[in-house]
Design brief:
This protein starts with 5 loop residues before the first helix and ends in a 9-residue tail after the last strand. The protein is globular, with a radius of gyration of 25 Å. The longest helix has 16 residues. The protein is built from 22 helices and 14 strands.
Length: 468
């Protein structure tokens, strides 16, 4: 089963149906579902698919490549042939492609490992693309899980620059798509908690036992020595970056609060130009962090960097501090005894991040997605400490929507109105701009709040799970 990816499949099929050959680059973090997408896409199409292995020599990589080809074309004699260079391999593939009557898909998965010990491989592919494959009605797909490599060394390489017909960044699934993993077996409230912890990574949701509770699943996945979420941190982090310790320092620093380039450089004791920008760019391409310009009273060009990946945030907050206990297979239910008892404030912050991340869904639910000018949290700092608005939506029709994002197990009470009023008194709204008040919460507001008719709109969690 494949969940979501309708847009990606449509673009791939449109490219395939054209009369010309197509060169496609696909990238995205590990576990995001790139290989599953292509596996589904190539069904009923003529294709050759090859997955490279990490950390092996070029000769071993070629042997592995030939073994995969032998199995796919059902030619055991191929294993007896001696290939020592990629040039020989590609010439053999070219001869096979010449005999195809329909367009073939040629798929190179984990391309960064295929090219890691062969710096000239991208140039060699360019040569075969220009001289052979482009003429043979081929759809060539280069796919990788190290986004920075795929962008800098493939898409922006001198060899392939201007030749890529389609570039696909595979990102997390939307909330409404994640519902499909549960077959309506679990509540929206429970599904939301999974998203606050794991984001929209398909692999993580595939591991959930939909017949068991949230608490049992998280205990097994995150707080047991064999748990996937307990062990995945090093796999995704250390496989993603060549200098993981520096990237980890940045992540640790950003876990405290959003930081500017200068603040991050000062923390690393490095110059803000060059290296630090590259680290931040690579983290952002991998979608572990995001950059944005804060909405403030006094306009600023300062860019802030903020943690985006829910799993990394949860890992550092709750899994890492209990690492030794988990490794020792403590008989205690760590989640129930150590986490669940006091994690409500953290859920509140996670829900604010959720609303910011999926602000497109909010704008769509409010019916304003076509008139949005600017979206983000609003900060104002002064001698008394200042204040923050969870989400401010500036519209093109001279309207500001002040949004409060509240994670409550029950419904929100009238106390939220006082909080809104205090903030509204302190924010300076330009003359001629109207203000609308929006409450976003898991279960909405209680009857007392609704009777007061204070909010222009009240959104509940179900609004995030509508197909849009």
């Amino acid at each position: 089963m494949i969940v979501g990816r309708e847009q990606e499949l449509r673009e791939l099929n449109d490219n395939y149906k054209s009369n010309n050959s197509g060169l496609i680059v696909i990238y995205g973090r590990r576990r995001i579902g790139k290989s599953s997408l292509i596996g589904y896409y190539v069904e009923k199409k003529p294709f050759l698919s090859f997955e490279a292995l990490e950390g092996i020599s070029t000769l071993k990589q070629i042997e592995h490549f030939i073994a995969q080809m032998s199995a796919q074309i059902e030619d055991e004699f191929l294993l007896q042939m001696k290939f020592t260079t990629w040039d020989q391999v590609f010439r053999y593939i070219t001869e096979k492609l010449k005999h195809g009557k329909k367009k073939h898909v040629l798929f190179f998965d984990e391309f960064q490992w295929m090219a890691s010990n062969q710096s000239s491989l991208v140039s060699l592919i360019k040569f075969f693309w220009d001289t052979e494959w482009k003429k043979l009605n081929v759809q060539l797909i280069l796919c990788g899980s190290i986004a920075s490599f795929m962008v800098d060394k493939v898409i922006k390489s001198k060899a392939l620059y201007g030749r890529v017909d389609l570039e696909l960044l595979i990102t997390e699934l939307k909330p409404v798509e994640l519902l499909k993993f549960f077959d309506k077996n679990r509540s929206l409230h429970e599904v939301l908690k999974y998203i606050l912890i794991m984001g929209g990574v398909p692999k993580y949701f595939e591991l959930i036992n939909k017949n068991e509770s949230f608490e049992k699943n998280i205990q097994k996945l995150a707080f047991s020595s064999s748990g996937y979420l307990f062990n995945d941190y090093e796999k995704i982090f250390y496989a993603q970056f060549k200098e993981p310790s520096t990237y980890e320092k940045i992540v640790h620093f950003l876990l405290k609060k959003p930081q500017s380039l200068e603040e991050i450089s000062g923390h690393l004791k490095m110059k803000s130009s060059g290296g630090v920008k590259r680290y931040l760019k690579n983290l952002e391409i991998a979608r572990f962090i995001r950059s944005y310009k804060p909405i403030q009273k006094n306009k600023t060009n300062i860019i802030k960097y903020k943690m985006l990946d829910e799993y990394l945030i949860f890992f550092h907050k709750y899994i890492l501090p209990h690492k030794k206990q988990i490794q020792n297979n403590s008989p205690n239910n760590i989640f129930a005894s150590k986490i669940k008892t006091d994690w409500t404030p953290w859920l509140g912050i996670a829900f604010e991040n959720f609303c910011l991340k999926y602000n497109v869904v909010i704008c769509d639910a409010l019916g304003i997605k076509d008139i949005v000018n600017e979206v983000g949290p609003y900060f104002e700092r002064n001698d008394t400490g200042g204040f923050q608005i969870d989400l401010l939506i500036k519209r093109t029709d001279d309207t500001w929507m002040i949004c409060g994002c509240k994670y409550y197990e029950g419904t929100v009470g009238v106390e939220v109105i006082n909080e809104f009023e205090n903030k509204l008194k302190r924010i300076e709204v330009p003359r001629g701009v109207s203000v609308e008040k929006v409450l976003i919460s898991v279960n909405g507001a209680n009857s007392s709040v609704e009777k007061l008719n204070y909010f222009n709109r009240i959104l509940k969690i179900k609004d995030f799970f509508k197909d849009y």
